[in-house]
Amino acid sequence: MKNIVFSFLLFMTVNFLAEAQAPMGEPQPNQPADIYIIAGTAHSDLIYKVSGRDGKLYQAYLGEKLTNPSSSGQLRNSDHPAYATFGTDNLFEPAVRMTHNDGNPSLELKYVSHNSEKPAAGVTLTTILLRDPVYPVDVTLKIKSYEAEDVIEQWAEIVHKEAKALTIYDYASSMLHFDAPRYWLTQFHGDWAEEMKMQESELTSGIKIIDSKLGSRAHMYQTPVFFLSLNDKSDENKGELIAGTLGWSGNFRFLFEVDEKGSLRVVSGINPFASEYTLQPGKIFKTPSFIFTYSNKGKGLASRNLHHWAANYGILDGTKGRLTLLNNWETTGFLFDEKKLTGILDDTKKMGLDLFLLDDGWFANKYPRNNDRAGLGDWQENKAKLPDGIGYLVKEADARGVKFGIWIEPEMVNPKSELYETHPDWILKLPNRPETFYRNQLVLDLTNPKVQDFVYNVVDGMLTANPSLAFIKWDCNRMMTSAYSAYLKDKQSNLYIDYVNSLYGVMERIRLKYPHLPIMLCSGGGGRVDYGALKYFTEFWPSDNTDPLERIYMQWGYSYFFPSFAVCNHVTSWGKQSLKFRIDVAMMGKMGFDIEVDKMSENDLKFCQGAIQNYKRLSDVIWHGDLYRLISPYDENRAVMMYVNESKSKALLFSYTMNARFGETFEKVKLQGLDPDKTYKVQEINPSNEGRRFGPPPMRGGSYTGEYLMKVGLDAGLGFALSSAVYEISE
Ligand code: DGJ
Fold first, then answer.
1. CB atoms within 10 A of CB 671
2. Whose CA is nearest to atom 1 of ligand 1?
C-alpha cells in the first residue's frame, strides 16, 4: 500500500461501451489501461481492478501482501464484481439492487474516480466512486485499512438525484470473493443463556445465510461474526482465513454463495429482509461497516489482530483501564431498600472493588418496579425503596471511596407504566392487532425524535442531577415483534434500519456530552455484542448465564472476535463450583462480582480480596496482552489460554479442567508468545485446595526458559473436574 501512489482518473464511458463485447483479459486496441487500487495493510492486500475493457470495478486479489510492486499488474483475469448490481447481466447475489422512479429495476456501476487519504497515522481511507451511466445514482465504496492491526473496514454510501424517492432492496456493506478448492465456515449461535456456541461446516454449492431479524438487537440466535477458512479447516496457528464481523446492532446478514465454478462470494451487511428502503433524493444511505482481518497463520493471529484494532479503534477508550465492580442483580433481584444498598456499598469497599452497580428495580412509583411486569419507562426513583433518591446513594458511595453505577433500559416500556398511559403513540405496535410481549414489555419507537429526546434525557437527567455517577449498564431486553411505527407512517419497511441509526444518533449525543463515562452494553445477556454499538460503549455483558462451566465455552467463543477488557465476567452463585474456580474463570476478562459478600466466610472473603488484588495488579496483561488459546474446550476436557504483554516480560496462564476421569492426567501444555531466550519465573496465583478430592497436587511454580516453556511445556492441568489453576509468568 505505502509504495503505491494513487492517481485520480476520470474515464470516458464511451470507451468502455465500445469494448463491451471483448472477452475478459484480452486487451483490445485503444483500450484504456487497467487501473489497480490497492487497499493493503502490513501483511494483507485487497486489490481492485478498474477494467479498461468495460470501466467496471472488479476484485482482483485478497490475500497475503504482494511485496513485489509489479505483481498487482499481473492480476489480469479477474471477473469478480467488486459490488455486483442487479438488473443487467448479473446472475448471482447482488450487493446492491434498486428500482428507479420510472419503475426500471436495473443498475450498472462504472468507475468514476478514486482517491486515498490518511485520516490518522497508520490508517488509510480509500474511496472509490462508481456511477450508473443511465440513472443519476452514485455508489461510493469506502475501504479503511488499519496498517499495523491488519484489519480492513468496508462500507458503501448510496445516493441519487432522481426526481422522487427510490426504493433500494439490497445495500451490502461488503462483497468479497474467494477462489479455493474448499471453504470452511465457523459460525456462532445460541439462545438466551447459551450464547456463542461454535460450529464449523463446509460450504457447498449454493447459498448459506447467517442472519437475524430481531430489530432492536443484533443477535440472540446467530451472532454477527464468522471465520471463513480456505482450502482446509484452520486451527489456532495454521490455516488461511478471514475473520469477519458486522458493526450493526440490528438485523444483519452474511450470505455465502458458491457458484458453478466453485468461486465463493461473501455478501455482508444489514439484512435486507422486510427492509426495502425508501431513499430520498440527495440523502446518503450509509451502510454499517464490515470489519475483517486476513490471516495465513490461523485463528489465533486473526483474533489478536481484531483485539488490537478493537483496543485502538473499535471500542470506546479501549486502551484505558476498566472498573472492577459489585453488582446486586443476582443477590437482591428487584427487592432492596436503602439500608440493603448501603450495606452493599460497604461490601464493595471491603472486597477492594472500584464500583457498586445498582441493577434493575430502583424506579417507578405509580407502578413500582418490583418485578418485570411493571414500571419500565418511569425513570423516577421509587420512593418506598429509595426515599432519599439516587443522590443519597452516590454520596454514600463517595463517602466510602467507591464509585456508584446504575442500570437503565431506556428504549423499553411495560404496559403497566405511566409512560405507556401518557404516550401510546411512542410505542412500536400494530394499530389493528393485539400487542405481542416479550418479558412483559414493548419497544419504544426510537425513529420518533420525541422518543430520541426522551431516551437522551433519561441519561442526561440522571447525570446532571448526580454528576459523580460513574457507570451505566444499558440494557435492552427484547427484540421487535409486531413492530409498526406510528411515526414512520407509509415507510414501515424503513423501521429496522431507522431504529438502529436513531439509537446511534442518541449515543452520539450522549458521547458528545459524556465522552468517557463507562457504559456496559447489555441486551438480556449477549444480544448487542457488535462493533457498531461498541464504539459508544466500554464493555459488554456476554450472557446472563454465569455458571463458570458454561462461561468457559462462551468466553472462549467471544475471545475470537472481542478483546478481554470488554467481556464482563461476574462471579455469581450460578453453578456449584468452588469459589476459586468461579473467580479464575471470571478473571480471564473484565472481572466483577455479584454475590452475597455479607454471607461469606472469613476465609472466602480473604480469598476474594487476594484474588482482586492479583487481578488489579495483573489486569493490564489480561486486558491488553496478546491472547494465545492453547487448548480448546471443544477438543479436550480442559481449556488453557494465556496472555502475554508486549515486551514479553509478563504472562498469565489460565488452565481450567471441565471434567476428568479418575486418575486422569493431562499432557503438558506448550506455551506461546514468550521470548525463548528469557528465563521466566512461573508462580501459581489464587492457590487453593477447595473442591479438590483426588489427583496430583497442582504445579505450584518454578523457573524455566521461554524456550523450555514453549517447546517442552508445563504441567498446567489439574486432574479433577471443575478445577483451575492460574500462573503468573514473569521474566
Ligand atoms: C437482563 C440483564 O442481562 C441482567 O444482567 C439484568 O440486568 C436484568 N436484565 C435486569 O432486568
1. 27
2. 524
**Residue 523 CA to chain centroid, in angstroms?**
13
| 194 CA from centroid of ligand 1 (Å) | 15
- CATH topology assigned to domain 325-410+447-478+519-624: TIM Barrel (3.20.20)
Exposed / middle / buried, residue 371 (Cβ in 10 Å: 0-12, 13-18, 19+): middle
* Ligand 1 atom with least separation from CA of 473: 7
Domain(s) of CATH 3.20.20.70: residues in the chain: 325-410+447-478+519-624
Which amino acid residue places its CA nearest to atom 11 of ligand 1? 360
Who's near 175: CB < 8 A, 6+ residues apart?
A: 59, 81, 82, 83, 84, 95, 265, 266, 267, 268
Q: What is the dihedral of CA 301, 305, 306, 311, to 10 degrees?
A: 130
Q: Where in the chain is the domain with CATH 2.70.98.60?
A: 35-314
CB of 407 within 6 A of ligand 1: the answer is: yes
Output the CA 223–ligand 1 centroid distance in Å: 19
Task: Give the pLDDT of residue 28.
Answer: 75
Separation of alpha carbons 96 and 84, rounded Å: 7
What does the block give as the cell for 190?
445460541
Q: Is 525 in the pocket of ligand 1 (CB under 6 A)?
A: yes
pLDDT given at position 27: 67
710 burial level (CB within 10 Å; 0-12, 13-18, 19+) = middle
- Residues 615 and 571: their CA atoms lie apart, in Å, by 13
Position 21 scores a pLDDT of: 39
At residue 115, the pLDDT reads: 98
Task: Assess contact for 205 and 223: CB atoms under 8 A.
Answer: no
Q: Write down the architecture of domain 628-730 according to CATH.
A: Sandwich (2.60)
Domain with CATH 2.60.40.1180 in the chain: 628-730
Query: Chain-centre distance of CA 375, in angstroms?
Result: 30
Task: Give the pLDDT score at 695.
Answer: 62
Cβ of 544 below 6 Å from ligand 1: yes
Residue-averaged pLDDT of the chain: 94
Report the first-to-last Cα separation within the chain, whole angstroms. Answer: 37
Integer Cα distance of 75 and 317 in angstroms:
41
62-76, 374-388, 444-458, 667-681: which range is least confident on average?
62-76
Q: Which of 385-389, 686-690, 692-696, 718-722 has the highest mean pLDDT?
A: 385-389
Q: How far apart are CA 201 and CA 212, in angstroms?
A: 19
Q: How far is the C-alpha of 293 from the C-alpha of 589, rounded, in Å?
A: 22
**How do residues 82-97 score in pLDDT, each as one tens digit?**
999 999 999 999 999 9
Q: What is the pLDDT of residues 185-207, one digit of tens each?
A: 999 999 999 999 999 999 999 99
pLDDT tens by residue, 21-69: 344 456 677 899 999 999 999 999 999 999 999 999 999 999 999 998 8
Q: Which of 522, 568, 571, 572 to mutate to test the pocket of ligand 1 (most atoms within 8 A of CB)?
A: 522
**The residue type at 722:** L
Residue 152 neighbours by CB under 8 Å, 6+ apart: 39, 41, 44, 46, 143, 144, 145, 146, 291, 292, 293, 294
CATH class of 35-314: mainly beta
In this predicted model, what pLDDT tens digit does every residue of 160-171 receive, in sequence order? Answer: 999 999 999 999
Give the largest Cα separation in the chain, rounded: 87
Give strand pairing partners of 644: 626, 651
- Which cell is 644 given? 502475554
